[in-house]
């Protein structure tokens, strides 16, 4: 009997990809869907947790970051600058609208040591990890 490792987060990601592809197929049929959902990467190195978000066309002043109880919330709005009348498009594939993405961070971070930069449509957030507390074993003598 072969053991298969169950990874629920991977299954959720696969489901999310399936749903995204389903709704993306509507835009290919010419059915307009509302909203904008940026792609997010979360990675780590020895000392930091790094979050990068693709936000093309979003202005810096339209982005809001919040970190509370180890939950990072990225929200904002991508506004359409073109005011073309309804029915005048030959093709319209770009998405506009507000977005809000929340992530429970996989590790504890120092909320007062967060560095966020927005450059060329990429939001990069670097958070210092909380150093693991090493527990010292102590033998207690019974009296």
Describe this structure in words.
The protein has 143 residues and is mostly beta strands. It has a domain at 34-80 and 94-129: Immunoglobulin-like. Helix content is 15%, strand content 37%. It contains 1 helix and 7 strands; from the N terminus they run H-E-E-E-E-E-E-E. The strands form 2 sheets. The chain has a 4-stranded antiparallel beta sheet, with no helix packed on it. Strand 3 and strand 4 form a beta hairpin. The radius of gyration is 21 Å and the shape is flat. The protein starts with 7 loop residues before the first helix and ends in a 14-residue tail after the last strand.
Short précis:
Helix content is 15%, strand content 37%.
Portion of residues within helices:
10-25%
Number-wise, the strands total: 7
Element pattern in H and E: HEEEEEEE
Strand order of the largest sheet: 1-2-7-6
So what's the CATH class of the domain at 34-80 and 94-129?
Mainly Beta
Strand content: 35-45%
**Number of continuous helical runs:** 1
Mean pLDDT figure: 80
Which second-level CATH architecture of the domain at 34-80 and 94-129 applies? Sandwich
Catalogue the unreliable spans. Answer: none
């Amino acid at each position: 009997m072969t053991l298969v490792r169950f990874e629920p987060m991977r299954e959720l990601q696969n489901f999310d990809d399936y749903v995204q592809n389903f709704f993306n197929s509507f835009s290919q049929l010419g059915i307009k869907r509302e909203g904008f959902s940026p792609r997010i990467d979360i990675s780590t190195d020895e000392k930091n947790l790094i979050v990068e978000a693709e936000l093309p066309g979003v202005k810096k002043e339209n982005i809001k970051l919040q970190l509370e109880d180890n939950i990072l919330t990225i929200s904002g709005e991508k506004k359409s600058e073109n005011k073309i009348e309804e029915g005048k498009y030959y093709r319209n594939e770009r998405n506009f609208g507000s977005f809000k993405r929340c992530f429970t961070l996989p590790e504890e971070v120092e909320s007062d040591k967060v560095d966020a930069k927005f450059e060329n449509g990429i939001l990069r957030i670097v958070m210092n990890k909380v150093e693991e507390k090493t527990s010292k074993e102590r033998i207690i003598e019974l009296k």
